[in-house]
Amino acid sequence: MSKILVLAEKPSxxxxxxxxxxxxxxxxxxxxxxxxxxxxxxxxxxxxxSPESYDDKYKSWNMExxxxxxxxxxxxxxxxxxxxxxxxxKLLGRNDIESVVIATDAGREGELVARWILDKCHYRGSLxxxxxxxxxxxxxxxxxxxxxxxKEYENLYxxxxxxxxxxxxxxxxxxxxxxxRYNASLSAGRVQTPTLAMIVNRENEIKHFKPKAxxxxxxxxxxxxxxxxxxxxxxxxxxxxxAESIVAKTNKEEGTVVEVKxxxxxxxxxxxxxxxxxxRDCNKIFGYSAKQTLSIMQRLYENHKILTYPRTDSRHIxxxxxxxxxxxxxxxxxxxxxxFCDDIIRKGIKxxxxxxxxxxxxxxxxxxxxxxxxxxxxxxxxxxxxYDLVIKRFLSVMLPPxxxxxxxxxxxxxxxxxxxxxxxxxxxGWKAVxxxxxxxxKEDIDDLREQMLPKFEKGEKVKILSVDMKKGETKPPAxxxxxxxxxxxxxxxxxxxxxxxxxxxxxETGGIGTVATRADIIEKLYNMFYIEKKGKDIIPTxxxxxxIDLVPEDLKSPLLTAQWESDLELISKGKANxxxxxxxxxxxxxxxxxxxxxxxxxxxxxNVTGSKCPKCGKYMLEVKTKTGVxxxxxxxxxxxxxxxxxxxxxxxxxxxxxxxxxxxxEGQIYVCSGANxxxxxxxxxxxxxxxxxxxxxxxxxxxNYMKKMKKEADAPINDAFAGLMDLFKESNK
Length: 733
Hints:
Helices cover 37% and strands 20% of the residues. It is an alpha+beta fold and 733 residues long. It folds into five domains: 3-146, Rossmann fold (3-Layer(aba) Sandwich); 164-207 and 480-597, Topoisomerase I, domain 2; 213-269 and 402-473, Topoisomerase I, domain 3 (Distorted Sandwich); 293-396, Topoisomerase I, domain 4 (Orthogonal Bundle); 608-698, no CATH class. Strands 10, 11, 12, 13, 14, 15, 16 and 17 form an eight-stranded mixed sheet that branches. A hairpin with a 6-residue loop joins β24 and β25. α5 packs parallel to α21, α8 crosses α12 (381-396) and α9 (290-302) crosses α12 (381-396). The chain is globular. 40% of the residues are buried.
């Protein structure tokens, strides 16, 4: 009897598919049933071959061997996961396999995972594609009833291959050129370099910013306050003498109400979440990193099956999802959300263009709850936080607008204009879902706050009890945090100087990188020690600042990667030629290498310590990581590194603040991070004590369940981008 081989991206997804497809015979590397055999990759099992596989001369990094431009790019099996690859190859060679269903993630990178495996196995048989946006049993069954022809995704595969080859050709060549030219571990790329450039440029703006003093004038009346504004509605005065004269002129005088405006206003709910918007909010509200949020989302999608596909850049749903909304509302009808769900269902779901629009959905619709009911006790606090955000946003788009009456009172005092603003809420609408009132309205006038106002009539006299003047200073632009950096990557045209045509291109292509890669790019900037954290703020290191000075000019521009993404999108739709794209990338890599070779710039390590490397004897460099400090050898060929201090999740037994682990080896000690706490203890004795206590307070069942899922979701899954970075790291040792 012939069978169909189903290829998933991860073991957890493979097991879910096997359960739905009634495959019960577990063979460790695959699960077999009467009709289907389900197997899985571990992320990428196959990647582009390393430079040395083309020629032995590339084993050592020499400028004279650059650029590296193989005539034909080769694929190779990733060693650490080769066992699973050869198990899949055996399955593909079975006589009873009649066709293959690609069931990897429904996107460009997921397509690449499967196609490279099939190509390396020389599979040329029948091919179908499972394309779903959630991992519920119903979604899987529906997906298998509506499998797509694999040929429909050939262009997507071409675009994915073109992206991978371009990153190899440009990234590896520029990285080797920079590293050889400056004898330092440096890397550059089409996404990471313009992202770093924005961070460095912002730091330069802050460094060269000169604050300017300004003054605001407020009048105190009986039960309310007035703010002075000029003819342009600006409340800031930059001339102190002018400000002082206004205070003297209006203090304890009588004003006349010139105008009272009352206008009914409606504030509609923000759009549904895509991944970037969700990462932004999680960083702002909970302090989660972009990568952490994505990891949590993957667990909610794959393990719990309660949220839809996370790696989406769409903020709308399609019309075919509308009939499922009632069931999705029922799935989140618990706790405080029940009354909102019942109200929406009772009044009828109004699917309008604000959240239902086929034309504004790309590969996947916005992130929304699935029809699967949640078991709240199975969620960690992090998972609950993210799930709550998505539920609130989901409910809010189906609830009425927030309605209020805004009152603006215009008062003339001795020829000077003063204003007061007030708001009376008519209906909370969607804002009732949120614990605290959200107000997305932007004030038109600086420092003019809304307040409860008495009733006014035009011509009414107002007594000014006192007038005071406050001094302020203009502030430099804020440093990026992970949330605002994601915004800048999505809309770089707002943060860099580009002409109108370039700004339009950046807007249309969605900026730098994709929703799926931005978190990894930010992590990579930390791991290369180009950036570090100061509280929530991101600041560039000396290494990062110097790199931006050293790399060729056009590699810093976000326009380059936006143009790449635009070309790749056209390739995926069959409207552009992938071969022409790769040829242009090879030419570009040659130009970049030439620019680096001809540079007369120098790179200087300004973080050299007095400690020598135990392996090669050269002085170590002190670098800051996301969680602490480490020393790394300055010799790229040595690559030795050792931890100096690291903030842990262990808590001080005295003040409950986080403990810092200092030193390495037997000499490690825990030190409290609290400013007024002197707790310190040897790591070995602290760990023994901690282990004994943990035995007593063990919620075994729930904790073991949670750990198992988190370990599975966060396990090192091979990734094409990470694989490329491994090439950099290996060669840097």
